[in-house]
Amino acid sequence: MRNPSHAPRSARKNATGAPSSPRSSQDSRFLKGSLLERERVCGKPNCRCARGQKHRSLYLVLSRGKRQRQLYVPKDWEQSVRQWVANYHRIRDLLAHVSDLYWNKVQRRER
Ligand SMILES: [Zn+2]
What we know:
This protein is α+β, with helices and mostly antiparallel strands.
């Protein structure tokens, strides 16, 4: 069984020269949630974390009503997840803005 704390090898296949899109910075996927960084010590006495350089882990947090879900974000997913979360906020702000326009139209009886 694969240890889930290790990144799957397939995630690094782009380095082999497979045609990965140069437009990956325009990734339009989106994801609702907020990002939470946690620091921890692993317990190994000779590790850098024992000297104060704690390990940093990123989590995606989603609150829905009283329930809160947390999801660990592996290092090689971090860039994508940060982008998707940012995309979500941008889309949400855009929707709110457009909705305001229609609110005003109804208020002014404009179709
Ligand atoms: Zn450590």
